[in-house]
TrEMBL record:
Residues annotated as domain Bacterial bifunctional deaminase-reductase C-terminal: 5-173
Protein name: Dihydrofolate reductase
One Pfam family per UniProt: RibD_C
GO molecular function terms attached to this record: 5-amino-6-(5-phosphoribosylamino)uracil reductase activity
GO biological process: riboflavin biosynthetic process
Leader sequence segment: none
Length: 203
């Protein structure tokens, strides 16, 4: 069985909406599209690139898929080569245009379909796709969570951890690494069980 990795970019107040550009996701009047761009540097760029090594499939929500399908087939950098070559699995209740080569729509039973995808691939990356992420968090249907935290707060926008998460244990896979602009990469692995509790006042 392969692994599913969540690749997530968030502000300190855990907004994950529209990091890449002004037109990426302006839904609900979101005014800060492209908030990540001023904070990217060589260190963060290298972290992102390294995180995709070994990827052999993408798992995307409909909105993210449409953005990627309109952009990556027309690019020629290493990310474009990877994204254009690997299979793309799309979670959508509608009828998306699947003209991007290698694209497949997942079935109505989303958790079952994603488990089948994990059986077929070594490393499946979930990029953006915040609605899909909530489903995966709720089902504990992921193996690693890679979270880039950025030093700003927006006070509006869709959150990385909204209403889909359930009580979950995670373990830090490596020491956090900070980029010069202040963004920090946190890599966690899923751990079985639910969070324990205790009493800090107990002697």
């Amino acid at each position: 069985m392969g692994q599913i990795h969540l690749e997530l970019f968030a502000t300190l107040d855990l907004v994950g909406q529209g990091p890449g550009g002004p037109e990426e996701d302006p839904s609900d009047g979101f005014a800060f599209g492209g908030w990540q761009a001023p904070l990217m540097d060589d260190v963060a760029g290298a972290q992102v690139q390294a995180s995709y090594e070994g990827t052999d499939a993408l798992l995307l929500g409909r909105r993210t898929y449409d953005i990627f399908a309109a952009y990556w087939p027309h690019q020629s950098d290493p990310f474009a080569e990877l994204f254009n070559a690997v299979p793309k699995y799309v979670a959508s209740r509608g009828t998306p245009d699947l003209s991007w080569a290698g694209s497949t729509q997942l079935g109505a039973d989303l958790p079952a379909a994603i488990r089948e995808v994990r059986e077929r691939h070594e490393v499946v990356k979930v990029v953006g796709s915040l609605g899909l992420v909530q489903t995966l968090l709720g089902e504990k249907l992921f193996d690693e969570l890679h979270l880039w935290l950025h030093p700003l707060m927006l006070g509006q926008g869709r959150k990385v951890f909204a209403d889909g998460a359930v009580p979950t244990n995670l373990r830090l896979l490596e020491p956090p690494v900070a980029a010069p602009t202040g963004s920090v990469l946190l890599r966690y692995g899923l751990v079985e069980g639910t969070p324990g509790t205790g009493d800090m006042t107990a002697g």
